[in-house]
Amino acid sequence: MKNIAIIGAGMTGLSLAYNLQEHNITIFDKSWRPGGRVSTRKHGNYLFDHGAHYLSTNHSVNQLNEVISRYNLGHVIEIDFATDYLKKEKTRKKIIIGKNGMNSIPKSIFENIKSKSYFNSKIIKISKNNNGTFSLFSEKEEFKNFDYVLICIPYLQSKELSSNFIDFTQVINEPSYDPIHTIMLSYKEINNINIKAGLNLHKDISFFMNQNIKFNELSHDCWVLNMSSEYTNNNIDIDRSALEKYAQSIFEKTFGIKNEINFIKSHRWLYAQTKVSYNSISKKNWITSRNNKIFLSGDWILGKSLSDAWDAGEKLSHHIKIL
Fold first, then answer.
1. What is the number of domains present in the chain?
2. Which domain, by its residues, includes 288?
3. Looking at residue 57, what is its pLDDT?
4. N vs C: which end of the chain shows fewer Cβ within 10 Å?
5. How far are the Cα atoms of 6, 12, 68, 159, 278 from residue 27, in angstroms, in the given order?
6. Exposed (0-12), middle (13-18) or buried (19+): which is 247, by Cβ within 10 Å?
7. CATH number of the domain that 101 lies in?
């Protein structure tokens, strides 16, 4: 049995913890809760899945679907979905959503794993001990004697943290992310919008989704909008008030909304989704140190979906089991 540190409690880190439960697992995350970009935000009586929006039923062979089914963490709904709103293309789409918001999925997986954890703990340094094990350091604490360190955070942060152990000159082309501004907004009255989610609402809004279909307790009309990655890149540090007014004006003009808005808030995801995956560049499923003791993985390995993030952890766990 090995002592294994997992840095990052997103879907890849949780996948590793789930698949390596026979070992002593310790999870570290700078956030106060598991899930990473699988985030459900609560503002008063409003609820928004403002990170990952749903899990596609197309990933039917994926282990993540099996875990969701085993622990009864989600359910399938069917909605009117615009595959391209600007081109007036739509379909009926089946999706998997969390029973209490999307973050309830990683939260429940974490609770079922029952591993040791340290949240609100950003790891800033890794050092190798004389006995060959590793120590991890946050700003306030030292955590000793890990046989393996599995780093599952955004690529550039992983690279900075592990640069003393991994030769990154071998990584000729690096994976990259798209940033995304997300807008959460709510209206006092329910708007009669038949399309509940979709793509390409506007050249500057790449995705939109109604939240009432996820949260039955919502009495007001709640929506989440994703600005396009191109718009976000060009306006990465835009004033939030200006961003929110712009997104609101597009949304209301598109659907002819006259109801009064009673809540709006934006959030910037710098590492929203994988743009170029590491596997597509290198055909490899992880990055490792020379001694195969420190590994880098994450949603940047295989692709941008929740299933891709989970699969990256599952693949690495199989490799670690045979070391």
1. 1
2. 3-322
3. 82
4. N
5. 5, 12, 21, 19, 24
6. buried
7. 3.50.50.60
